[in-house]
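1st attempt posting a full record on here, be nice pls
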Amino acid sequence: MFLLALVYLTFLAFLAYQGAGMMTMLIFAGGFMLLQYFYSDRLVLMTTGAKIVSESEEPELHQMITRLCAIADLPKPRVAVVDSPMPNAFATGRNPNNAVVAVTTGIRRQLNRSELEAVLAHELSHVKNRDVMVMTIASFLSTVAFFFVRYALIFGGGGSGRREGGGGIIIAWLASIIVWIVSSLLIRALSRYREFAADRGSAVITGQPSNLASALMKISGVMTRIPDDDLRKVEGMNAFFIIPAISKSSIMNLFSTHPSVEKRIAALEKIEQEMETL
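the predicted structure (as tokens):
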């Protein structure tokens, strides 16, 4: 993902060096973000191999989601199943009317009904909180930020002309990388906050925070036994999963989109104590 971002930044820096205007650059970035926003659900389903299932195919799963949606006051999303031994679940879609909630076959084997309902409630909370929209907007603002940094360095004097030599574009390229890294860290911090919020949403919807805590412990316990090669295959989808599929040797642990399981369980225990005192 880091190398892909460098390629993206290099391309934008090349456009700037060739004299592309700020508006052209913003249209390019904006178009890219709009495609991500409107087609993210299709891309995620295609990437994970998720299959949309009907109520006749998965009556129990549909029944659970229907009940949880009634409690959460949400329209029922499409339901998908991923044929994978990895225990996980995710939600995608730009708004509650275009949402998809998916579970793997592995998570259904690992969790009991109450734990699975807690995980589904977590994913529905993402839908209710419009987290796909929030993260897309955050990513766009990050892109705009390094555009301004680049132009401030390449074009002096209010954009009157390009700086002579190749030094300007090199400095702008390096500055853009720094801005991208800082903004990416902030976006991941926002993502971790959204995970805490979805955990709280699950606790409120089900009324049983301990069920989600139990599910998280089971999922994380199984995840540590999955070979690194299998984890790397889906590493790019971590932002969507309830627990990231990060290989144990991956440096991306430093840039996690999720809080640690220990912190999430501690937060759920605190929520349960709050509920008991009401």
